[in-house]
Design goal:
heterodimer; A: mainly alpha; 3 domains; 27 helices; globular; B: alpha/beta; binds adenosine-5'-diphosphate; binds magnesium ion
Chain lengths: ~700, ~240
């Protein structure tokens, strides 16, 4: 037997002795569904009975004809009570106010007000007052409406009789609609709405605790070293652990599925039967669902293990996994919403594809091709997650991190409480957390403040939002946290060579961004109305106007956004590897420009962000970023605002001219070469700390 | 036997172990003596293949830790400072598990598990869950766990840390017996008594470096001290009035 098998057997044995896992795996599915179903049904029946028992108190205002009163009296679920006191000639608003009071205090459930005469062939005006906020009143209303309808029917009969007309005179078309769906199909549709989410969540839950226990738990209890000094390759250890976790996830989900189907079978679900549905799923479908659950469980298991092993304790692992858990819930919820089709894009979206495929399977409309896409893509994600987990298990900095010195709770010397809030470590350069917090605050500010400003004040609003909501907070952040502005924001002057490199980069960057925008237009629809609006904004008819537009749309963002993204964010993420920090910077920059209508801007903007972040990091100067940002935006402004030039690029949906691509690559290479030839970038963190912690030199 | 030459381990800017060289022969007990943070654990982890050295070579029974780590692991028992157990396994299951991971076959495993259960007196609680054991019992189980394959080389990181005298004494006796069976024993400690009592030779570590090596007597007389403790303080330059 190979080693992973022994690891797996031991982990399984230990997992099965864990009460929490057993609870999720066995008790929840076996007990939850029957209990839930019976309880919800009873609750529903109970509520209905209670409402039915009491006759709804209704009142009549105005001179009611005797036949209406007779109808009201003859309906047992109604009880006519004296109307609320209303002055005979009071204006309508006063009357409504007193009815409202009566409704609120509950002395009546609904009130009918009759106005005008009944003679001739006119319509008698009848108003029914009720409260939409009370079940009792809504029921009173529907009873009352029924009574009024009955009365109206009688009046109609009478009129027809007088005129000698048949009843069909007022029913020129008699419609009947019939659903030809089989009860199973109706049931499948209803199940397909709810069940996928439950299955995914249970799989998720099933893997959650074992993943923590098998990775972070091994570290917290200090059993890892003994395990890793056995002659078992790390790969076998990961495999054994991961198979356990995935198996628990699959079994939990399978038991869940089974329990749910059995609960339906027993006929406990009477309401469903009354609604004309049969909650049952064909065995072949169950098998397919089960098959699809496997890559899903593999994905969750491996992902959770990989994350969990990076943490040092149960608690930390739980804290790290919970956001991931929440994130996965969102795509799992998709089937609950009507009208979301399983498109190719959704099929390859992790979790979302599986959820929608489950739904289609259950309602019997699954497309085998999409199913294959879902299965294959889930498999690919699962393999990626596995590699992630295996990589983490092989890394000594993950397995044996420096034992963390207990972090001092005291605030750093010389910083006030507000500063300490922003600058927890008291260092001269913000840390990741501070930078992330800052970006979050700015994003919220910009989201809620920026749009109203731009809508309310037009172009001035743009100017205000950039300076007040981006530049100012960035400067305040550095100032309040007592960070070293010069190092954090890299305000140092760039060398002419660095600027030349940056210029070459932006010339190469722009056509590529255009290419990206063009390529993705195949995937996402482009909101043309929005783009046309933008074009209007930037048309310049005079030189002064052009200068203003350049200041507004090129210079302002170049300064304000650079301060935020390549200033605080890039400065605060220096503890990451440069490659990661740069990539993250681009992604955040892209996400920041994301709004509901302009998802299309994400990729091109992120690409621009990556290029700028690289240039700023490599040159050590924010001004290189300002230059790139300004040239990029300025070019767009000039192209779009000059009618003569605009015609050159008349069709915004056209691909960039082919010759721009080799030129772009050449520019990028030249810019990269120039920047790489600069002296190595200074790590602003050590530069600032003055090398105080540098190790003593090694003896020769 | 263990052969360490020029071992260096760097954590970012910090050199936790610098140019460390020593050798532990069969039938010898070698102690690495050093203050907290001197780099003992890091050195032992490198020898036990848990960490990849930044520089230098380590060989165990002639096998290199960097090119043949699996072969090295077959030949060592590594007792870490954190001797956690799997709470939901019994000592017997735990020891059996480690025997399987060592690649032992069923027949020899059964016999060997019985042997270590006897050796460390686990019989009385071998079927209880590890989560319910006392500290001393756990220490014995964790020793049994790493020794199930009866390897020729023992690497013990602070083996008596946190133990009372009786349990500590049991470990001492065990170490002496293993030495007499011809094993190479390497252990680390920051406590003088353990070292004086057990070690045939001592390496004194300070800031990642080996600053002195020899028998306890050699070390004491070498710096003209009256006790190992005093010698140690002089060697690491921590004694009052002694310039580093
Ligand atoms: N994984 C690690 N990452 C960074 N530094 C570490 C790591 N492990 C140990 N260190 C540092 O290396 C030095 C030596 O530690 P260690 O080997 O544990 O010493 P000892 O066992 O002698 O007390 C200490 O300064 C410690 O902080
Ligand atoms: Mg130590």
């Amino acid at each position: 037997m190979s080693a992973w098998w022994f690891v797996f057997r031991k982990e399984l044995r230990e997992t099965l002795r864990d009460r929490r896992t057993l609870l999720v795996m066995l008790a929840v599915p076996v007990l939850l569904y029957p209990v839930l179903m019976v309880a919800s049904e009873q609750l529903l029946l109970f509520g209905m009975r209670q409402l039915d028992e009491e006759a709804a108190p209704v009142a009549v205002l105005g001179d009611a004809p005797s036949d209406l009163l007779w109808i009201l009296d003859s309906i047992p679920t109604l009880r006519v009570v004296p109307p609320p006191a209303v002055g005979g000639s009071a204006p309508r608003s006063t009357m409504e106010e007193s009815i409202r009071e009566a409704l609120t205090e509950g002395s009546v459930a609904a009130v009918v007000v009759l106005e005008g005469p009944t003679d001739g062939f006119g319509s008698r005006e009848v108003r029914v007052y009720y409260s939409d906020a009370s079940d009792r009143s809504r029921r009173g209303r529907s009873e009352l409406m029924g009574a009024v309808d009955l009365w109206g029917g009688r009046l109609l009969e009478e009129r027809l009789r007088v005129q000698g007309l048949p009843r069909s005179f007022v029913v020129p078309v008699a419609v009947a609609d019939t659903s030809l769906a089989l009860p199973e199909e109706v049931g499948g549709y209803a199940l397909g709405r709810m069940l996928p989410m439950l299955l995914i969540v249970i799989t998720l839950l099933g893997t959650f605790y074992p993943a923590i226990d098998l990775a972070a738990g091994e570290k917290e209890r200090g059993t890892l070293e003994a395990l890793l000094t056995t002659p078992v390759p790390p790969g076998a250890v990961v495999t054994g652990k991961f198979v356990t976790v995935a198996l628990v996830g699959v079994v939990a989900a399978a038991l869940n599925l089974l329990s749910m189907l059995l609960t339906f079978r027993t006929g406990l679900f009477r309401l469903a039967a009354e609604a004309g549905m049969v909650a049952a799923i064909a065995p072949a479908t169950v098998a397919l669902i089960f098959l699809t659950l496997i890559p899903l469980a593999v994905l969750f298991g491996a992902l959770f293990l990989g994350i969990s092993v990076r943490t040092a304790s149960f608690k930390e692992a739980q804290n790290s996994l919970t956001p991931v858990y929440m994130l996965v819930m969102i795509p799992a919820l998709l089937p609950v919403f009507p009208g979301i089709d399983l498109t190719p894009l959704l099929a390859v979206t992790p979790v979302a594809g599986v959820a929608l495929f489950f739904r289609d399977l259950m309602s019997g409309v699954a497309d085998p091709l999409m199913g294959a896409v879902v299965l294959v893509s889930s498999g690919v994600y699962a393999v990626l997650a596995l590699r992630f987990a295996a990589r983490n298990f092989g890394r000594e900095d993950v397995l044996f991190p420096a034992s963390r010195a207990p972090r001092s709770r005291r605030r750093p010397r010389g910083l006030g409480p507000v500063a300490a809030l922003v600058n927890a470590s008291g260092s001269g350069i913000p840390g990741e957390r501070a930078a992330a917090g800052f970006i979050a605050v700015v994003a919220v500010l910009f989201f809620y403040g920026g749009r109203p400003l731009q809508i309310g004040f037009g172009e001035t609003g743009i100017l205000l939002s950039e300076w007040l909501l981006l530049a100012l907070p960035a400067l305040l952040f550095v100032r309040v946290g007592r960070f070293d502005a010069y190092s954090t924001l890299r305000l140092g002057r760039p060398s002419p060579r660095a600027l030349a490199g940056a210029l070459a980069l932006v010339l190469g960057c722009m056509p590529i961004a255009w290419g990206i925008a063009w390529l993705q237009s195949f995937l996402f629809p482009v909101p043309w109305e929005l783009l046309e609006g933008l074009e209007e904004l930037v048309t310049a008819d005079s030189a002064t106007r052009l200068a203003w537009l350049l200041a507004l749309l090129a210079l302002t963002p170049a300064v304000c956004e650079e301060l935020v993204f390549r200033g605080v964010l890039l400065g605060g993420t220096t503890s990451l590897s440069p490659r990661r920090a740069i990539l993250l910077n681009g992604l955040v920059f892209g996400a920041f420009h994301l709004s509901f209508e302009t998802a299309i801007r994400f990729l091109p903007t992120a690409w621009l962000g990556v290029v700028i972040a690289y240039a700023v990091w490599r040159s050590g100067s924010l001004w290189a970023g300002v230059l790139i940002h300004f040239v990029n935006n300025g070019t767009v402004v000039i192209l779009a605002s000059t009618p003569a030039l605009r015609d050159l690029f008349a069709d915004p949906q056209a691909p960039p001219p082919w010759w721009t691509m080799p030129a772009a690559v050449a520019f990028l290479l030249v810019g990269y070469r120039i920047l790489e030839d600069l002296p190595a970038p200074v790590d602003i963190r050590t530069a600032f700390d003055g090398g105080a912690e540098a190790p003593p030199p090694l003896d020769p | 036997m263990i052969h360490v030459s020029g071992l260096t381990k760097q954590f970012g800017d910090l050199a936790a172990v610098r140019d460390l060289s020593f050798q532990v022969d069969r039938g010898e007990v070698y102690a690495l003596l050093g203050a907290n943070g001197a780099g003992k654990t890091t050195a032992l982890r490198c020898i036990a293949t848990l960490l990849r050295p930044t520089g230098g070579r380590v060989e165990v029974e002639g096998w290199s830790t960097s090119s043949t780590p699996i072969e090295v692991r077959r030949r060592i028992a590594f007792l870490a400072t954190s001797t956690g157990l799997y709470e939901r396994l019994t000592p017997r299951e735990l020891v059996t598990y480690f025997g399987r991971l060592q690649g032992m076959d069923d027949a020899s495993l059964e016999a060997r598990v019985d042997a270590v259960v006897d050796l460390f007196a686990l019989g009385e609680f071998q079927h209880r869950l590890c989560g319910q054991l006392s500290h001393g019992q756990r220490q014995r189980v964790s020793l049994a766990r790493v020794l199930v394959h009866d390897p020729p080389v023992l690497i013990l990181d602070e083996p008596t840390l946190g133990l009372d005298l009786v349990s500590g004494g049991a470990i001492h006796r065990f170490i002496q017996r293993e030495r007499d069976r011809g094993k190479a024993v390497l252990f680390s400690s920051h406590r003088m008594e353990a070292v004086e009592l057990l070690a045939d030779r001592v390496g004194v570590m300070d800031e990642g470096r080996l600053v002195a090596e020899g028998t306890v007597a050699d070390l004491v007389s070498g710096v003209g001290a009256s006790s190992l403790a005093q010698a140690f303080l002089r060697l690491v330059g921590a004694e009052e009035g002694v310039a580093p």
